[in-house]
Design a protein that fits this description.
Blueprint: E1 2-8, H1 12-24, E2 28-34, H2 37-46, E3 51-55, H3 63-72, E4 81-85, H4 90-98, E5 103-106, H5 111-119, E6 132-134
Parallel strand pairs: 1-2, 1-3, 3-4, 4-5, 5-6
Length: about 140
Amino acid sequence: MVDNILIIDDCNQTRSLLKDILLKTKITKNVIEADNGIIGLIKAKNQKFDLIIVDHQMPKRSGIDLVIDLITIKAYKPEELVVVSGFLSSEDVSRLINANVKNIFSKPIQINRFVNLISFNDVNWLNCNHYRIISKIFA
């Protein structure tokens, strides 16, 4: 089980769905939400989370900029960050890979795959050496 997870996504429905999944499957007991990258950055700096799930395309601050900031200030390791998006350009993927972010997932949500991958998180998949660029984790 993961103690604390932060979900940063501007879509309330996506945040609610992810939160419900994470709580009902007992992957975590505590989910905190943020609806944009600025609020997410503040929350991530003020509280330590075991895992942060970040949408890429958000108002005020993109998910990619946010995760790169968190890594640059050494607040989080790349393995503790998950980027989700409905669309990532090859430039976006390159920026994430250059920042050593290995957990990159596409929307829409396929619930069973998401639960399997996140629950497997209990440290092993977050420390793997290969990149998880996976299409259609979400459906």
